[in-house]
Amino acid sequence: MKNTLFQDKMVTSNRVLYTPSSFAKNNLIHLQEIGTLQALSEHTSKRSGLASFLFFYIKSGSGELIYEGNTYALTAGDCVFLDCNKSYSHKTSTDLWSLHWAHFYGPNLNKIYEKFFNEHPSPVFHPGHTHDYERILTELQTLTSASCTAKDMMICEKIMGLLANIMLDCEPYDTNKIIPLKALVIADIKDYLDENFSQKISLEELSKVFFIDKYYLTRRFRQQYGITINTYLQNLRITHAKHLLRFSNKTIEAIASECGIDDPNYFARLFKKIEGISPGDFRRGWMNGK
């Protein structure tokens, strides 16, 4: 691994040239280079015939990409995913750009890229926000200096996360049905659930509140927290119910209602499914243990 701070008349670049293990090269998606770049003057970069895939996003500024004979205008917030075996060039405009990028390669990446391009026949996309990409690339760059034996596996995991984000952000939508996406951190929705779990909440309502497609929301929430929105909401409600069962004299029907569940029978079934015992047995057990 070599960490290089480079500057000339055209760019200032901070990049890591990473050397993966032989095991990683043969078995894992592995990192080759990663870094940031700030253009200091207008310039063009051209590449072709590289056993590599490149992802970058434009933090600021603008420019142009030529890929497989097509020209794409690039602006701040745009993301680009390229097969570097194919000829491409990119250049900054007079509004000098700043980029964050990574080169990587590995088994099955050609098929993954083929799937990406079949579903989104453009190397350029503009997600609602770039927070996830910034986080993943920053974590990848930090991992390059780690000393643990699992480093290459951890790097592979991060790159897979990057690819999953790309595929999610590039899924085709029916533009006649989708609510336009706005800059949004999925954590905002989690906070909303934490504060409003006692109310009736549906995916349709969340979609309207946060101006985001409900299917996109479902996938992104599960990706970020490893749990579905519905399961997370159920856990919040049952956790609150346990507190009320222990520290109040409210009836089970009243507790169910306060937790956002109108049907006490459904509440009892859900409670037993999660806790393994009925709400009444939970209360009696806690009181006897007390």
SSE arrangement:
Blueprint: E1 2-7, E2 11-17, H1 22-27, E3 30-39, E4 44-47, E5 53-60, E6 62-67, E7 70-75, E8 79-83, E9 88-92, E10 98-105, H2 109-119, E11 124-125, H3 131-143, H4 151-169, H5 186-196, H6 203-210, H7 214-225, H8 229-247, H9 252-258, H10 264-275, H11 279-289
If you had to describe this structure to a student in words, what would you say it looks like?
- With 290 residues, the protein is of the alpha+beta class.
- The chain contains eleven helices and eleven strands.
- The strands form two sheets. A seven-stranded antiparallel β-sheet has the order 1-2-3-10-5-8-11, covered by helices on one side. A four-stranded antiparallel β-sheet has the order 4-9-6-7, with no helix packed on it.
- Helix 8 crosses helix 11 (279-289).
- The radius of gyration is 24 Å and the shape is elongated.
- The termini are far apart.
Uncertain stretches: 173-184
Mean pLDDT, to the nearest integer, reads: 87
The structure class reads alpha+beta
Listing every helix as H and every strand as E from the N terminus to the C terminus, the arrangement reads EEHEEEEEEEEHEHHHHHHHHH
C-alpha-based Rg, rounded: 24 Å
Q: Strand count, sense and closure of the main sheet?
A: 7 strands, antiparallel
Large-scale geometry: elongated
Beta-strand proportion: 15-25%
Tell how many strands the DSSP assignment holds: 11
- Calculate the terminal CA-CA distance, rounded to whole Å: 59 Å
Number of helices: 11
Which strand order spans the largest sheet, edge to edge or round the barrel? 1-2-3-10-5-8-11
The helicity comes to 40-55%
